[in-house]
Specification:
Number of strands: 8
Number of helices: 2
Distance between the termini: 32 Å
Largest sheet: 5 strands, mixed
Strand order of the largest sheet: 2-3-1-5-6
Helix content: under 10%
Order of helices and strands: EHEHEEEEEE
Shape: globular
Radius of gyration: 15 Å
Length: 140
């Protein structure tokens, strides 16, 4: 183990229930959370590109501490500028997190933060809220 808990949230196939600012919209869009460890000597990009080795059945806390990529898989999601979305996730011990968003037009965006910058995304109840960047294209 590298002794560092780093969660890298890779939005490779979509973002559904956790991103909705409207609870009714969140409940209408099921998602699957899948986890893959980042092997020593590799980076998250290599794990994401391989798109293999993701475990969708095991909870991350059962995998111990290490570096992981978490992919949220869901049906494509239209985003509206007048109805912003956020990705909500539980606060966990980590040194940093990076969230990747991919859109149907090939566009990408990312949002990252480390333990020193956590206040900008930490909300009441120890929940992180990461804004989902608006694009006219569907979020995948």
């Amino acid at each position: 183990m590298r002794g560092v808990l780093q969660l890298l949230f890779a939005i490779v196939l979509g973002l559904a229930a956790l991103v909705a600012s409207d609870p009714a919209r969140a409940e209408s869009r099921p998602f699957e959370s899948c986890i893959a460890p980042i092997p020593a000597g590799e980076d998250a990009g290599q794990v994401i590109a391989a798109s293999q080795g993701f475990d969708c059945a095991t909870s991350q806390n059962q995998l111990g501490s290490d570096d992981f990529v978490v992919a949220l898989r869901f049906a494509p999601l239209d985003i509206h500028a007048d109805d912003p979305l956020v990705l909500r996730m539980s606060s966990v011990w980590m040194k940093r997190a990076k969230v990747h968003f991919r859109y149907a037009d090939g566009g990408q965006a990312e949002f990252d933060f480390n333990s020193g910058e956590i206040a900008r995304v930490l909300t009441i109840g120890a929940v992180f809220e990461v804004p989902v960047p608006y694009r006219a294209a569907t979020l995948e």
